[in-house]
Design goal:
Elements (H helix, E strand, L loop, with lengths): L9 H8 L4 H10 L9 H16 L4 E4 L2 E14 L2 E5 L13 E7 L26 E5 L4 H9 L4 E5 L29 E5 L1 H11 L5 E14 L2 E6 L4 E11 L7 H20 L6 E8 L8 H9 L1 H7 E6 L11 E5 L5 H12 L3 E4 L16 E2 L8 H7 L25 H20 L7 H18 L7 H20 L11 H22 L30 H33 L5
Parallel strand pairs: 4-5, 5-6, 6-7, 10-11, 10-12, 12-15, 13-14
Antiparallel strand pairs: 1-9, 2-3, 2-8, 4-8, 9-11
Length: 591
């Protein structure tokens, strides 16, 4: 379903004209006074403020009070040869006890990220023997590197941040609360972060010879009650179907760019859509999560756990709002969205802002806690600083704040927010949500995903040549593509129908069923309603080990081949299931 140039309709213009900076900016100013650390009274006060604003606007909402598993950094330090160096422990670092953790330090040069796109996907090279040592490496202390060094036998880690400020972070691969399968992945070693000047001095000292260092870290860890606020704005024609738009309201320090601006955007969206609810065909749920920063997406994962069946049956899409409207952030590139939404997102950003946009595959990050359920998702971070300005300022990649390096530091204060940029980003959110809620047929094109599958199978199949036969998956995908072509050819005739007509509902049921079937095989290795680790997830991850086959020796090659063969069964079966879903439904649709 190729995108058509879509001018803003009179209805859309009315929604856009209703946007105001009053409520969102008041929230931002209030949040400058609240250190919204999860499990704290100030986080609870932020939730009360959001609820009070919803009450003020007459918006229905629910406050849930789950206990969320958190790891809250308190303090850290590094000492050697009489020096004491300020540090921060990432959440879920293992405290070493009062005496600290002492050992010999070893420097492992790191692969530095080239952009925010691969910030979460890089780490040090563990090819150096780190067994029984304390690793010193460049980076943010994020899960991939932390896990890699721990598995290699390091007893501790020192991560050198790229600037003069130390960024808070999270080092666990466990997504949300631990369960019987994931609890064993809890980090077992002490990990700290220091700034670049202190790190460079440490590296210079290591060049002179062996060095004993001591790490200290204190964290509060356990189950903490944390409010979740969810507003519910009912549509008029198909109220059971809804879009979930969400973001986290907890923060590091006052966290204005990450994520008070997102919380403000959510509040304004709730206000505008509630005011115009008589014009909505379908429903909108607006959610504010705790536990993002110190619970590894604990709030959104709790919601996925406890409302998973309803999400699977009725959620059209999930839209993540994190760090919009930041200082100097005027461009739209490398925006997270699933490929089936590509044409739609480009169209929306163009119509809302007049700007071109490019997207990328969503990372295993943010509050994308719904991939295992099979929800189509778009957005996470949105506007960014121009690349030329980032280079001019000498900034390094960050995971939010529109590219400002105040991200995850005490410097993320009011000046990081930009009212004009926030209002422009709100136009993007309003148009995207309104079009999904009100267009008769959901604007997601799974033919685009099938093309991506084809390219991925070709890459993996070439690596597996003469070892694993990909023909079953290729044949199943070919049949799926034929069914998708026939299905999408029927949709133009439905675009002028009412949302609640049976044929329209039947077409949308197919689109949701395609997401439930195809999103999990593209983004997950585990079952529906489970969670993936907070590590990079490649396309069709069950098959990605095929890339290692050309260099594998006999036993390893056979193990990898067995793994890929099993993965091919899962993938080919999903292709066949998706094709059958479309085939059965086409008989009920107009020719």
């Amino acid at each position: 379903m190729a995108s058509q140039i879509q001018s803003i309709s009179p209805l859309e213009d009315r929604f856009l004209q209703d946007l105001s900076s009053d409520a969102p900016w008041s929230l931002i100013e209030r949040f400058t006074t609240l250190v919204r650390e999860s499990g704290s009274e100030e986080e609870r006060e932020a939730a009360r403020y959001i609820a009070q604003q919803l009450d003020k606007f007459g918006i229905p909402y629910q406050v849930y009070e789950p206990d969320i598993y958190l790891s809250v950094p308190v303090s850290a330090s590094l000492s050697y040869e009489g020096k004491s160096v300020h540090a921060k422990p990432p959440a879920f670092s293992r405290p070493p006890g009062p005496a600290g953790l002492s050992g010999e330090a070893v420097y492992v040069p790191s692969r530095r990220p080239s952009s925010a796109s691969n910030l979460f996907d890089t780490g040090g090279d563990a090819g150096i023997d780190v067994r029984g040592k304390i690793v010193v490496t460049e980076g943010m202390g994020l899960p991939a590197a932390a896990e890699r060094f721990e598995k290699a036998g390091a007893i501790g880690q020192i991560h050198i941040n790229p600037g003069v400020d130390i960024h808070w972070g999270i080092c666990t691969t466990i997504w949300g609360a631990p369960d019987l399968d994931t609890a064993p992945r809890q980090p077992r070693t002490t990990i700290i972060s220091i700034n670049r000047p202190d790190g460079e001095a440490l590296i210079e000292r290591l060049k002179q010879g062996p060095l004993q260092v001591t790490l200290h870290a204190e964290l509060r860890e356990g189950w903490f009650p944390c409010p979740i606020v969810v507003a519910d704005i009912q549509g008029q024609q198909e109220p059971d179907r809804y879009v979930l738009v969400h973001g986290h309201y907890d923060s590091w320090d006052v966290g204005i760019g990450d994520n008070a601006v997102g919380d403000a955007a959510l509040l304004e969206l709730a206000r505008v859509f509630h005011k115009n609810r008589a014009e909505l065909a379908r429903s909108l749920k607006v959610a504010w999560w705790p536990g993002h920063s110190t619970g590894r997406y604990g709030g959104s994962t709790w919601y996925a756990d406890n409302f998973g069946l309803d999400l699977a049956r009725n959620c059209i899409a999930q839209v993540d709002i994190d760090s919009p409207g930041c200082r100097w952030a005027t461009e739209y590139y490398d925006v997270s969205w699933m490929i089936e939404t590509d044409d739609f997102c480009v169209e929306v950003i163009r119509d809302a802002t007049g700007k071109a946009a490019t997207g990328e595959r969503p990372h295993q990050a943010g509050d994308y806690s719904f991939n295992n359920i099979g929800l189509t998702g778009f957005f996470m971070l949105l506007s960014s600083m121009p690349k030329e300005l980032i280079a001019e300022k000498g900034y390094y990649p960050t995971g939010g704040c529109g590219g400002n390096i105040a991200w995850h530091t005490e410097n993320d204060q009011l000046e990081i927010a930009d009212k004009d940029n926030l209002m422009r980003d709100l136009r993007v959110y309003v148009l995207s949500l309104l079009r999904v809620l009100n267009r008769p047929v959901h604007p997601f094109d799974f033919r685009r995903l099938a093309v991506e599958f084809d390219e991925t199978l070709e890459q993996y199949g070439a690596a597996a040549a003469n070892v694993v036969d990909f023909s079953d998956a290729n044949q199943a995908l070919s049949e799926l593509q034929a069914e998708l072509d026939a299905f999408y050819a029927t949709l133009p005739g439905l675009q002028d129908r009412a949302v609640n007509e049976p044929a329209v509902r039947a077409a949308n049921d197919v689109i949701l069923a395609l997401a439930r079937t195809l999103v999990p095989i593209h983004f997950t290795r585990h079952g529906r309603f489970r969670n993936e680790p907070a590590l990079p997830i490649p396309p069709l991850p069950d098959l990605e080990p095929a890339l290692a086959l050309p260099d594998a020796q006999d036993h390893e090659r056979r193990v990898i081949a067995t793994h890929v063969r099993r993965g091919l069964n899962r993938v080919a079966w999903a292709f066949g299931e998706a094709a059958e879903i479309v085939r059965r439904a086409r008989t009920a649709l107009p020719a």
